Amino acid sequence: MTNNNHLRLLQPLEGNPWNIEAYCQKGGYEAWQRCLRENNPDSVISTLKRASLRGRGGAGFPTGLKWEKVFHHRSAERYFVCNAGEHEPGTFKDRHLITHSPHQLIEGCLIASFTVGAKESFIYLNAEFTEARANLEKAMGEARERGFLGKNILGSGVNLEIEIYDGHGSYVAGEETAMLESMQGRPAQPKQKPPFYPTDFGLHGKPTLVNNVETLSHVPHILRNGPEWFTQVGPEQSPGTMLFSLSGAVNRPGVYELPLGTSLRHLIEECGGGVPNGKKVKAVFPGGPSFAMIGPDQLDLHMDFDSLKKAGTGLGSAGVIVVDDATCMVRQTLKLSSFFREESCGQCPPCYIGTENLEELVKKIEEGQGTQQDLDRIMQISGYIKGTGFCTLVTGASVLVQNSLRLFRSEFDAHVANHACPFAPAPV
Ligand SMILES: Cc1cc2nc3c(=O)[nH]c(=O)nc-3n(C[C@H](O)[C@H](O)[C@H](O)COP(=O)(O)O)c2cc1C
């Protein structure tokens, strides 16, 4: 791409090592110093609301509203946790941000903690991200040396520490209530919402602000440049840029920062360089495996929360997975059904029993042992279990098979009719 004007989080790295000098030269930590000076949480919250920043962790919830709920909670004891769990297949933008540009996250965490008046602050970091952790610790050391973090920050009398918490390393542990459970030494199992929203009932039963790495990384830039700057790109309801993790059948997989609302075609063809080896797009997961796939006729869809929801799918945390036309969709469905079965935390019976049944049935079809009754059974079970869990894992598992059968019924039928998979075996 030639035009990098929209880049806010991923500045070109050449000559810009993202140490504290480079970050401060670009106005880094100015927003934090202003927050300290002015001590006006309502003004910070109002700026985030005017920027219409929406959470980048999956649900697209309005960030300013969440901060307001925690800040105005009647309980004086509050907590802050940055969610850097990132265990979904096809999503790798948070570890990229922490590894290559940790200071904007640290500044975002400081502002968030201070604004909501957190008693303690944490970054829940996937324990597998060793490089990201090393860079984050180094950056925290630099921030401490400059007096931005720690005791009596810049002589203000404010003390603020951020603790890195070793994350559990399971998909469900990234769900905010499960994450908070695991941080209190309990199994990483989601709690039922309502009533257990972290903004009311989080760490130690107290109001807790939970935000994603990317959401927090946007905050210092918005406060420094103003909400009008942020809303210059992207649609009115979800402005700004988003980091797209692009993987699967593309020539150039990677993390791309683009204005929300950019077409999927632009992402795949211009950024990703199209599908390798002369193959074509067969399907795309625009929001990771938990949201419905779309076919090649929908590549002009706009990649933002509302457009994808309207199209019957979702943006999630923008983990875009491209599938080429040489792929067996039954095998692809089996792979992801196995993921959902493995990652079910075992708490909700419809989830752990349903994901197991679905995996077994799809496996039977892929191995050429399935019948038309098995296909009916897949539709029946997925219909029963959808929406029945304390988190959305079970819904993701059921949407996957329903959607795959709807888009690629002929491939499932061919496995049943031929008693074998018509595609070449998967490469070992
Ligand atoms: C199964 C599951 C896994 C999730 N994993 C993550 C994760 O790894 N990182 C994340 O930020 N949010 C994850 N979420 C979303 C969080 O529950 C929560 O909405 C988010 O951290 C809030 O931050 P945001 O408002 O800044 O997006 C997950 C949700 C579900 C249902």
UniProtKB/TrEMBL annotation:
<dbReference type="Pfam" id="PF10531">
    <property type="entry name" value="SLBB"/>
</dbReference>
<dbReference type="InterPro" id="IPR037207">
    <property type="entry name" value="Nuop51_4Fe4S-bd_sf"/>
</dbReference>
<protein>
    <submittedName>
        <fullName>NADH-quinone oxidoreductase subunit NuoF</fullName>
    </submittedName>
</protein>
<keyword id="KW-0408">Iron</keyword>
<comment type="similarity">
    <text>Belongs to the complex I 51 kDa subunit family.</text>
</comment>
<dbReference type="InterPro" id="IPR011538">
    <property type="entry name" value="Nuo51_FMN-bd"/>
</dbReference>
<keyword id="KW-0004">4Fe-4S</keyword>
<dbReference type="InterPro" id="IPR037225">
    <property type="entry name" value="Nuo51_FMN-bd_sf"/>
</dbReference>
<keyword id="KW-0479">Metal-binding</keyword>
<dbReference type="InterPro" id="IPR019575">
    <property type="entry name" value="Nuop51_4Fe4S-bd"/>
</dbReference>
<dbReference type="Pfam" id="PF10589">
    <property type="entry name" value="NADH_4Fe-4S"/>
</dbReference>
<feature type="domain" description="NADH-ubiquinone oxidoreductase 51kDa subunit iron-sulphur binding">
    <location>
        <begin position="330"/>
        <end position="375"/>
    </location>
</feature>
<keyword id="KW-0411">Iron-sulfur</keyword>
<dbReference type="InterPro" id="IPR019554">
    <property type="entry name" value="Soluble_ligand-bd"/>
</dbReference>
<dbReference type="Pfam" id="PF01512">
    <property type="entry name" value="Complex1_51K"/>
</dbReference>
